[in-house]
Amino acid sequence: MSLVHPREGLWFLVVGAGAAATHAAVFWLAQHLMLAEVANAAGFIVAFFVSFFGHRFLSFQDAGTGVGQSLARFATTAIAGFAVNEAVFTLLLRGALWPSWLALFTAMLVAAAQTFVLSRFWAFRR
Question: Do the Cβ atoms of 40 and 83 come closer than 8 Å?
Fold first, then answer.
């Protein structure tokens, strides 16, 4: 038995790409109005809803948890992912002096891997 079903993995990528695009778009619109770290947080907040509903009803539609329980668990998962995202983003942006887009993209990739594992095996556990 595979740990990840092909359909589940495909939907995770599609929903994740949509949430990442949402996060990046909000970041792009907001970064000129506020600190990059705050723009990153704004992007996360908007993308959270895209991610939760997409993952709940597409990626992990056979979840053995109720919507409320999944939301609470996913919020915990997402906040943990965002903490990693913001730490990596700030380190690369301020410490390594990377361009904001490259730092954001890298931070989002690191957080996505963590989010998948926590989502699959805890937030939307079967």
Answer: no
